[in-house]
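User: I'm curious whether this sequence folds into something compact or stays loose and floppy. Could you predict its structure so I can see for myself?
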Amino acid sequence: MSKRINIQEVEPEAFKAMYELVKYLQTSQISHTQQELIKIRASMINGCAFCINMHTKDARKNGETEQRIYLLNAWRETTFYTEEERALLALTEEVTLINHGVSDETYQTAERLFGPNRLAQIIMFIVAINTWNRIAVSTQLQPE
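Assistant: Here's the prediction. I'll summarize afterward.
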């Protein structure tokens, strides 16, 4: 792999703004487990090794099981996720793969389960991790 720019060094104010968004989102009503499920699933879809590595470690520290982490790619095929988690994962996939749009069914389920404020927070979480994934993938950040 060729050496790529380090955006944090080259444009520190841009990173500062991203960290402010993260800081704000950490005050949201979304549980740590839900936050990590969003981050891991979006990172899997985007092929971001750096973020998958970081967020699976964080999820384990917060008590997430290995089994649920391993099965995230096939979450629809298991009963290991709650109704809320399934709604989060569906929304995460559809926002991450936005060229297909977010279906009315997915949106309405999420809105029913979370209400407008939590839904807005969830969408912002998904948007934020997708931004981080794109930074990491385009600059070839490597897992520690």
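Summary: The longest helix spans residues 104-138. The radius of gyration is 15 Å.
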